[in-house]
Design a protein that fits this description.
This protein has 298 residues and is an alpha/beta fold. It has ten helices and eight strands. 41% of the residues lie in helices and 16% in strands.
Length: 298
């Protein structure tokens, strides 16, 4: 298939998923099946461990000292270390080293700031054995927003920043104020505004928490170099655009990539979507260039 046919196939598969939310257990079960149904990147081994006091999947791809902390998507309500392992494996296969996909606590049982506390605890533990210059952070969707929150929390705690961070379709505004939530409604094959609000209400049940959990409203100065990748056909387009703009205004080194005709976290479709493989190649190169010794990103 050519690229357009690949994009059409991905959009059709996403459009076939139910857009109405079920119960939290139903949503978690369905997302777990979806997130673990495809294999890890070739050449990456996986085993279970703990990090920061919580379960994690450890993924190994060579002897590089690079360590990646990966934060999964799922609206802070669904998802797990296992559902995040696929994208984590794709990144660590390109940088070499070891990745940890973290099983941070989920809402509504554990609303904001539980996930942020868990991610910071994981980063603290990595710093006990790894130089900050060898650490990378990445995440998708809610995990992308959480990755930026982790950078902010680390700075505020007086901890060194990691070498770099990469976020895919980051959810950075839980107040849902981005224009694209309305203007991209017809283009997005996966989400509706009501679906985003369902997740937001579970994680941040009041306006003050929603704003506090939204990195675009935070001081972004002093953060690590940041790569932001987003699909142009998704409700969260403005979350990514505003994050990149505000980071640049705060003198953060930031690279923004908006993929035309592409949906939310399209990178998950690596191996089937050339756009996804190319985006991950660029992400791997971005992260590798900021490590102390340049690692072949393939």
């Amino acid at each position: 298939m050519n690229r357009q046919q690949q994009r059409d196939a991905v959009r059709a598969a996403l459009a076939a998923t139910p857009r109405e939310r079920g119960t939290v257990p139903q949503e978690r079960a369905g997302f777990e099946i979806f997130g673990t149904s495809r294999p890890l990147a070739a050449g990456v081994s996986a085993d279970d461990t703990t990090l920061g006091g919580w379960p994690a999947v450890r993924l190994r791809a060579g002897a590089s000292p690079a360590v990646l902390l990966y934060l999964h998507g799922g609206g802070y309500v669904v998802g797990s270390a296992r559902t995040g392992a696929r994208l984590a494996s794709a990144l660590i296969a390109r940088t070499g080293g070891t990745a940890y996909s973290l099983d941070y606590r989920l809402a509504p049982e554990h609303p904001f700031p539980a996930a942020a506390d868990d991610a910071l605890a994981a980063y603290r533990e990595l710093l006990e054995t790894t130089d900050a210059g060898d650490i990378l952070i990445a995440g998708d969707s809610a995990g992308g927003g959480l990755a930026v929150m982790t950078l902010i929390a680390a700075r505020d705690a007086g901890l060194p920043q990691p070498a770099a961070a990469a976020v895919f379709s980051p959810w950075t505004d839980l107040t849902l104020s981005g224009d694209s939530i309305r203007t991209r409604a017809a283009a997005d094959p996966l989400f509706t505004e009501d679906a985003l609000r369902w997740y937001a209400d579970h994680f941040t049940p009041d306006p003050a928490a929603a704003r506090a959990a939204s990195p675009i409203f935070a001081d972004l100065s002093g953060l690590a170099p940041l790569l932001v990748q987003v699909g142009a056909d998704e409700l969260l387009l403005d979350d990514a655009l505003r994050l990149a703009t505000r980071a640049a205004a705060a003198d953060v080194e930031v690279t923004l990539e908006a993929g035309p005709g592409l949906p939310h976290v399209y990178q998950l479709n690596f191996g089937d979507l050339d756009d996804a493989d190319d985006a991950l190649d660029r992400a791997g190169a971005f992260l590798s260039r900021r490590l102390p010794a340049v690692v072949d990103a393939g």
